[in-house]
Specification:
This protein has 473 residues and is mainly alpha-helical. The chain is built from 18 helices and no strands.
């Protein structure tokens, strides 16, 4: 990874510039604060919306029906978000950050408003597609804009603040969605999302006032885009087919299409990923694979409350709090690691992250037991905190590594935007695999829990290897 640039020479140097502090107060002040708020809010809207909708779905189905389309509500959103994330760098180059953010917030608000007014499940799914297009654009912009909107000395901290929103969304999304559902106000919930998105569209317009793109429309790499979009669709649809071999077949098809995408990209002139990704000896590809491994570990959060209730008889509140442990440790660890300035220390943090994540998940999987008592639940919380800390140690530094991988602004924008695409595809693959592994556990709650957790741990173990390669000099 690239050594952070120093911001000032010694004070007695004859050409010493005015020193700029590399601190949180400097980042969270003046125009920098407005920019960080916009970046963070876009990712938060996306992350929170996933859990927000899951909590609302029982109330939605009870009022408008459409239980047979239950899974499509999430799947349509995710597919649309992956597709939108592919166009982030081109939107930035064409229109600039301000216009891109305003468009993302407006499209997200339009989709949310459509959800609020839906009389049946079919219009709701259409609204989710629109919402996903806006959400995918916002999530991708969160990383891509850091590179051009903030000084390099703030890249690590800004990346930490933005990626922390994934954890914050996990913490508060289910609670807010559950509150609206409890009050019977699911339509108001989407109305509130639309209003918040419109508010941030105004903030974004002011924060990025005076910025503009080059006006150049880069050709869309259709040859690369088709297999990648089909791969995203196949992987996402694996959650809808019968669990078992059909699921694995869909995932296998998606992986083959991803391989075809890479083969096409290596030979194409116009690409989705930066061209340096495919150069022999370049570490960017390994950075993306490490991000994918960490993203796989994040998906354990989806199952923690279920396992706690089934195996420990925990109340929904306690189970929900246990599920939040991983996110909380993730947020705390990354806010700490972004203050590390030594290149050697950053390399060690990136290598240590997947190792701690894998160790925590293996321990959590092996500790699953029927009739677990308070002491065992406490151990679960401890090893989940270890796993979450592993994600937090590596995640923001990997983001900085991607941003620093290219000196050309267009290529750097591609590199940063691809973090979100990688993350969303990894979420889809892991979610589908976890469903198959849970079914393999049969009627045994312990077996189902161990298969899911240890299966995901195998994916994160790959991150230990890729992180080592990514951080070689």
């Amino acid at each position: 990874m690239k050594e952070p640039l120093t911001s000032a020479r010694p004070a007695d140097h004859p050409n010493a510039p005015i020193a700029h502090p590399d601190t949180w107060p400097d980042l969270l002040s003046g125009r920098h604060l407005a920019i960080v708020c916009v970046l963070a809010s876009g990712v938060l809207l996306y992350a929170m919306n996933l859990y927000f909708t899951a909590a609302l779905m029982p109330s939605i189905v009870a009022e408008i029906g459409g239980r047979q389309y239950y899974a499509w509500v999430t799947t349509s959103f995710v597919i649309a978000a992956i597709v939108a994330s592919l166009f982030v760098s081109r939107m930035l180059e064409w229109k600039g950050a301000g216009a891109a953010y305003v468009l993302g917030f407006l499209v997200f608000a339009l989709g949310a408003a459509g959800n609020a007014a839906s009389p049946a499940m079919e219009p709701l799914i259409l609204g989710r597609v629109v919402q996903g297009l806006g959400g995918g654009l916002l999530a991708g912009l969160g990383y891509a804009v850091i590179r051009t909107a903030l000084p390099e000395r703030h890249w690590a901290r800004a990346t930490g603040a933005v990626s922390a929103m994934w954890g914050v969304g996990t913490l508060f999304g289910p609670a807010l969605g559950g509150l609206f559902a409890e009050l019977g106000l699911w339509r108001w919930a989407y109305g509130a999302l639309a209003a918040v998105a419109l508010l941030f569209a105004i903030v974004a317009q002011r924060a990025f006032a005076g910025t503009a793109g080059s006006g150049r429309r880069t050709p869309v790499p259709v040859a690369s885009l088709i297999p990648l979009v089909l791969a995203a669709v196949a992987i996402s649809l694996s959650a809808l087919v019968p669990i078992g071999w059909p699921t694995l077949a869909m995932i296998g098809t998606g992986l083959v299409l991803l391989g075809l995408f890479v083969a096409v990209e290596r030979r194409a002139h116009d690409t989705i990923l930066p061209r340096i990704t495919y150069r022999r000896g370049n570490s960017l590809k390994w950075v993306y694979l490490t991000v994918a491994a960490l993203s796989a570990g994040v998906m354990v959060e989806t199952f923690i409350p279920l396992f706690a209730q089934q195996l420990a008889g925990a109340s929904p509140l306690i189970a929900g709090l246990l599920g939040a442990v991983l996110s909380l440790a993730w947020v705390v660890a990354q806010l700490f690691v972004v203050s590390v300035s030594s290149e050697a220390a950053r390399r060690r943090a990136v290598r240590l992250g997947p190792l701690l994540l894998t160790a925590g998940l293996i321990a959590y999987g092996l500790l699953q037991a029927e009739g677990a008592g308070p002491a065992m639940v406490g151990l679960w919380a401890a090893v989940l905190a270890l796993a979450g800390a592993g994600i937090g140690l590596a995640w923001p530094l990997l983001g900085v590594a991607a941003m620093s991988s290219a000196s050309d602004p267009a290529e750097g924008g591609k590199a940063a935007a691809a973090i979100t695409t990688t993350q969303l595809i990894a979420f889809s693959v892991t979610s589908a695999l976890a469903g198959t592994l849970m079914a393999a556990g049969g009627q045994s709650g312990v077996d189902a829990a161990r298969y899911v957790i240890l299966g995901i741990a195998l994916l994160t173990l790959l991150g230990v290897l890729t992180a080592g390669v990514a951080t070689r000099r």
